[in-house]
Amino acid sequence: MGVSLSTSDSSSEYYSAPNSPDLSFNQNYTENFTEKHSVACQTDLSFQKDLSVVDPYWEVLDPKPDIHVLFEEFNTKFFGGQLPPIELKWNNRLSITAGLFIPDDKIERCKIHLNKPLLELRPRKDTVQTLLHEMIHYYQRVKGTRDNDHGAIFKYHMKRINRKSGAKITIHHDFIQEYESLKRHWWKCNGPCQEVVKRLADRTPGSKAHKRKCGGDFIKIQEPENKRMRTDP
Ligand SMILES: [Zn+2]
Ligand SMILES: [Zn+2]
């Protein structure tokens, strides 16, 4: 609309003129928006403190975060600064595990590894949530908490941090549920083992070893919808 959004007194008067109430609304909106979202040229980044750790804005501002900086930030925000420095690094060999906490009798020898190939292809928030998950394990180790892997105390901290941060930390170390949901070809063994096998591809399971041990055959019990539509006349 070509109107400059100056905040000087005279233009404020202009915007609050009775004939242009919408403009004053726009101005307020633009000011709020600018306050929250325009950072490129600002040196004062204090507004960032108000953003949730998984705010979509971070995906743009800092898509490839320094995990050591995140660790320190989360340590302060969610763990009262009680986590000692730890070996924290990207790992190329974690297969489908997004993150791993490696405990040790000596706290200073514990490690947190994050799956580089997996997480670098995913949104930043997945790195944040994976790191927070592993940090909860570490916190429990530091505190000497007696809990199962993802028992009541783990869940207590998970929910506490989710509430405080807006994150969605889960009890999973991977995206396997997401991956599993893509496996739409299912078979079930008709022998004594009754094993159910789910696969991405339409490739019937069964090995010589299984045949020898169980004797059963794998019978298709589910197929993807689109496939059924193609095969049914
Ligand atoms: Zn875990
Ligand atoms: Zn079987």
Automatic annotation (TrEMBL):
GO terms for biological process: DNA damage response. SMART domains: SprT. Residues 65-221 form the SprT-like domain. GO terms for molecular function: metalloendopeptidase activity; polyubiquitin modification-dependent protein binding; single-stranded DNA binding. It is found in: Nucleus. Keywords: Nucleus. It comes from the Eukaryota. Its main location: nucleus. Transmembrane segments: none annotated. GO terms for cellular component: nucleus. This is SprT-like domain-containing protein Spartan. It comes from Xenopus tropicalis (Western clawed frog).
